[in-house]
Design brief:
The chain is an alpha+beta fold. It has helices at residues 2-12, 26-29, 39-46, 122-131, 135-140, and strands at residues 16-21, 51-52, 59-69, 76-87, 93-100. The chain is built from five helices and five strands; from the N terminus they run H-E-H-H-E-E-E-E-H-H.
């Protein structure tokens, strides 16, 4: 009975892996010709991208990752692969690049910068407006 309990405990603590995303195989990427293929032909050849450049549509990004779940520990990313297909102004492929977790390169999928309307934050402005509220002035009307 004790042997069964130990075996069940050890089996519950074995690492489990989860795969996310899609990266096309190398032979499919080899079929893409720089300067000749377009967005449409890339979609037909290797499939729809995981994401694309959101502002100017200058690139397709194919992202795949593998996470290891082990016992009580937080999930850990053990592998990541990114394929970036860049397009020029004419809409043709200008470059195909492959990155891995070991490259340590962060690909900015989106960058948004919002300018502040003033030096005070939203919450500070809201609270300052409430501080100027007088219930007597409201009831006089």
């Amino acid at each position: 009975m004790a042997l069964l309990a130990v075996t069940a405990t050890l089996a519950g603590c074995s690492a489990q892996y989860r795969d996310h995303g899609y990266v096309p195989p190398a032979e499919d990427l080899a079929a893409i010709e720089v300067g000749r293929d377009t967005r449409e032909s890339v979609r037909e050849t290797i499939g729809a991208p995981t994401t694309s450049a959101l502002v100017d549509e200058r690139g397709y990004y194919y992202v795949s990752s593998r996470m290891r779940h082990f016992g009580w520990r937080a999930p850990e990313e053990v592998s990541r692969e990114i394929v970036a297909v860049s397009f020029g102004d004419s809409g043709t492929v200008t470059n195909v690049e492959r990155y891995g977790l070991e490259d340590g390169i962060a690909v900015p999928l989106e960058r948004r910068v919002t300018e502040s309307g003033g030096s005070a934050g939203f919450l500070r402005q809201l609270l300052s407006r409430l501080g100027g509220f007088s219930p007597g002035a409201f009831l006089e009307d």
